[in-house]
Request: fold
Amino acid sequence: MAISLGSLNSTRNNKPPIGVIYGVHGVGKTALASEFPDPYYLPTLGEEPPDDVDMPSPGTAESLDDILDVIGWLLTNEHDRKTFILDSVDGAESLVWRATCARLGLNSIEEAGFGKGYVEADTEWRELLGGLQALRDAGIAVVLLAHTEITRFDSPTSDPYSRYGIKLHKRASALIQEASQFVGFINYRHTLKEKEVGFNKKVSHAEGSGERQIHLEERPGFLAKSRYGTPATITYRKGKGWEELAKYMPAPTGIAA
Reply:
């Protein structure tokens, strides 16, 4: 019996997080991920860290099996890595679709028709997420890097508006968000200012100092979340990102712990 009525346990745990870090191009997603303890970096095709970021990596994942094999290795071998970084989760999506198509004998994920291919892909996504959860259970943090896309959000309580989101099919995005303890959106801080342009007319323009922020609480303009007691926004200074996040999130211990 999984439930013991005679004893109560705390719902709190010290497992490290599964987290998503996404943001605009060049804002420092990979740099922030590299600051997590003892990272192990797995890129998908076309992804690579910036020149000033150096992390151990087994090479580029070219299939879903490659990703699962790396996860399996991290779970069953002795090593000193404490954080698994997948760059990027939207790059992994094409590998998931390829695996789904191979299982169903399809030439493309659209061939199934009526969105059925994306529904079928849930099977592969859940297999991947199961592996990521196993890493978390073993004491290894997981950071999923992602690109952004701007989509229309049809709110039931207001007029539709556009916002930043994770560049994934909506079903996959929902699964990833559900499995994650935090979703951090990185962007530059902007200030709107008005400028006189004549004829008693003003226009607004954005100004920025280059300061970057990690948003951890959803706003109309972007998707974000945190299951920890984090502030809504944390200022990101290169080299200090994990130091700030670690004030609120359990640190990974690695499988040796």
